[in-house]
Design a protein that fits this description.
The chain is built from seven helices and 13 strands. By secondary structure, the chain is α+β, with helices and mostly antiparallel strands. Strands 1, 2, 3, 4, 5, 6, 7, 8, 9, 10, 11, 12 and 13 form a 13-stranded antiparallel sheet that branches.
């Protein structure tokens, strides 16, 4: 499985994709990768990735190993999540599981280089993908792509924000989805919010789909419902200039 090359799906209509992006500032592309490649990514995300809790307390990021968190007594986990939800009612907040692909790839620590998600990181930074991204977005200054794997389970969410952090030079954001089956009413929907506070458009997680959108742009990931059947798996990050 690890030898499967990472490559685009056949038949991508680059001109049509670029027109949609130019008009709307965002585009949903499915399928984006070869079927065999997408299946390898899914297997890696479900069986090979050591997940961490990814949340925040105000401006301070918080990262915890997911296994000890899951082993907490139920009352402790409930108290922790209640504090997360209380902060979300007042300010920007998030809670989901993640694996910082870029960080581990760049520093070479751990035994993670053989993971198939690392092949995705390499592909995102290849000339093949960078030229595709520049052609779609019109941003010729895109020079590299960062990445993290994410897993949203019941109660996980990402509150409203616009990704605009000046010194990070983010030109566009992306989400590569690898969840085989998902319904919109399970939550986990990438939502774009208009100036009146309405949901202007939403992208349900679709297997082997790329969601690409201009930064800044108000968006969120809706809270995953308690009756969702399984987790929402993706690789996400930003297209950036140096």
């Amino acid at each position: 499985m690890q030898t499967v090359p990472v490559e685009f799906a056949r038949g991508l209509d680059l001109a049509k994709i670029a027109r949609t992006y130019a008009r709307a500032g965002r585009v949903h592309i499915a399928p984006i990768l070869s079927q065999q490649c997408a299946e390898c990514v899914y297997q890696c995300l479900t069986n090979g990735v050591p997940w961490r809790v990814n949340t925040n307390e105000g401006d301070r990021p918080v990262s915890l190993a997911s296994e000890p968190f899951e082993q907490l007594a139920e009352a402790e986990r409930i108290r922790f999540m209640q504090s997360v939800y209380a902060r979300a009612a007042q300010s920007f907040q998030y809670f989901y599981y993640s694996f910082p692909t870029s960080d581990f790839y760049e520093d070479g620590t751990g035994n993670f280089h053989s993971l198939y998600v690392m092949r995705i990181h390499e592909f995102l930074n290849s000339q093949t993908f960078l030229e595709f991204a520049r052609a779609v977005t019109g941003a010729r200054s895109i020079s590299y792509v960062d990445s993290q794997a994410t897993l949203y389970r019941s109660g996980h969410f990402l509150a409203l924000h616009d990704d605009n952090v000046g010194e990070k030079k983010r030109l566009a954001a992306y989400v590569l989805n690898f969840t085989p089956r998902w319904r919109a009413d399970w939550g986990g929907v990438l939502q774009f919010i208009d100036r009146d506070g309405h949901v202007a458009e939403g992208y349900t997680p679709t297997f082997n789909a790329l969601n690409l959108f201009r930064v800044p742009q108000a968006h969120s990931v809706s809270c995953v419902a308690p009756f969702a059947m399984g987790g929402r798996y993706s690789i996400t990050g930003w297209l950036r200039e140096r």
